[in-house]
Write a structure and sequence with these properties.
Layout: H1 3-23, H2 29-37, H3 49-52, E1 59-63, E2 69-73, H4 76-86, E3 93-97, H5 102-111, E4 116-121, H6 124-136, E5 143-146, E6 159-164, H7 173-177, E7 179-191, E8 194-203, E9 206-214, E10 229-234, E11 238-242, E12 263-272, H8 278-287, E13 291-296, H9 301-304, E14 309-318, E15 321-331, E16 334-342, H10 346-363, E17 371-376, E18 388-391, E19 395-400
């Protein structure tokens, strides 16, 4: 690398750190310093210097046969947020699940010479790349392991910190077993199709969240993979996906429901262009037992919304109908939330979703957000907090709010018992 390239990298790095501080992704001097100390561009040879130091963008390293990313170097924004959640101190032993190289290097820098970092991945291409780049950048002490992370890596356990940098549908028992008694697990956990990076610590016999950050990751491969369940709405052009399975005995047959007349309901609740509404999606997931993620091809837009409106993939099926979140522009930079729906009971379901937007706006919009818990699979219902319960393969995950939500359609807020 020439001196000119080095100077440009330094300038881009400082600009990136400044933006990360403004975003709130970097809050501490230690995390700012690790971004300064570890040369990110050495771990992203596939990208230009500008792209390597873009604070918001990931760098795609490997894609599958359909062109979908299956291995990435996470964005600095996400890496900074998760490193702040982990709070790795000098002398700690830490495990990273999902290798890219640069994150393991930053973890190693934070743990110091008296600490130890292990990074593992199921893909030999990924681990070979990580080993090569770590060695070239001077981080030979990082232990790189090729293995399915479902069983963790017991050789270096217990770990005071475990950071998962791949989207997890569940938390394997090995991760908890290999976590030190006072350790911390930072994991992007997918719940009803919504992924949040959870900062989890032990609280009695379960894990409890200390913070949660909206995020997105490529999906876990191997034993921890989860295909979910799909309900067609218009053939393959539009469908609903349920990561945790359909929450009932019989999967509804809604293929063709989008050919019915569209119903609309508007709320008067507005949002600015740069304002986050991540807790609204979690609220709808808690309020509607049939909540899932709506996927539609681009040519279905005119069916889903009118001109000037936007549709979002937060959606719910109730019986023979489906509703989803939408907005319409009111003035420059300001939009109004609403709901669109299809099916024999579209009008009622659209109104029910609009009502839940109003409840969120009144009771939760400016609150701290929900608490998340990861409980043993055999935990009885009476021991779980009020709210949504999702039964997964290894654990029961709870999402509980300061005020319990009202069931969206007059039904009790029921447990999702489907699992896999």
């Amino acid at each position: 690398m020439t001196m000119v390239d080095g100077s440009q990298a330094d300038e881009l790095r400082e600009a990136m750190i400044g933006e990360l501080r403004e975003m709130g992704a970097v809050r501490s001097d230690r995390v700012a310093e690790v971004f300064r100390a570890v040369p990110r561009h050495l771990f992203t040879p596939e990208a230009s210097l500008k792209d390597a130091y873009d604070p918001r963008d990931a760098v795609h390293v490997k894609r599958d046969d359909q062109g979908r990313p299956i291995s990435t170097v996470s964005s600095p924004q996400l890496q900074g947020s998760m490193l702040e959640q982990a709070d790795i101190r000098p002398g700690m032993t830490a495990l990273e699940i999902g290798s890219g190289g640069v994150n393991a290097a930053m973890m190693s820098w934070l743990a110091g010479l008296d600490g130890q970092v292990t990074t593992m991945d199921i893909d030999s291409d990924v681990t070979e790349r990580a080993r090569r780049l770590l060695d070239a950048a001077g981080y030979e002490r990082v232990n790189v392991v090729l293995s399915d992370a479902e069983n963790g890596f017991s050789q270096d356990a217990p770990y005071e910190r475990i950071i998962v940098t791949v989207g997890a549908w569940d938390i394997p028992p090995a991760w908890i077993d290999q976590l030190a008694p006072d350790g911390r697990l930072v994991v992007p956990l997918r719940m009803r199709g919504l992924t949040r990076s959870l900062e989890l610590e032990r609280e009695g016999d379960h894990l409890a969240s200390r913070s949660a950050i909206i995020c997105g990751f490529v999906a876990m491969q191997g034993a921890g993979a989860n295909a979910g369940q799909v309900v067609p709405l218009r053939g393959t052009k539009a469908e609903m996906r349920f990561d945790d399975g359909w929450p009932g005995d019989q999967v509804p047959d809604l293929d063709g429901v989008l050919d019915t007349e569209r119903a609309e309901a508007w709320t008067g609740v507005t949002i600015g262009g740069m304002e986050s509404f991540e807790t609204l999606q979690l609220w709808l997931a808690t309020a509607f037992p049939g909540f899932g993620k709506l996927r539609a091809d681009a040519d279905q837009r005119s069916v889903l919304v009118g001109d000037g409106n936007m549709w979002f993939d937060s959606a719910a099926i109730d019986g023979d109908s489906i509703a989803y979140l939408t907005t319409r522009r009111m003035e420059p930079g300001v939009s109004e939330f609403g709901a669109h729906a299809f099916g024999p009971h579209a009008a009622e379901l659209a109104e029910a979703m609009a009502e839940q937007v109003l409840v969120w706006d009144r009771e939760q919009r400016h609150g701290p957000g929900p608490n998340f818990g990861v409980w043993p699979l055999n935990t009885p219902d009476e021991r779980l907090p009020e709210g949504l319960v999702i039964t997964k393969r290894h654990h029961r995950v709870t999402i509980s709010w300061p005020t319990a939500p009202t069931a969206a359609t007059g039904q009790d807020n029921q447990e999702d018992r489907q699992g896999e």
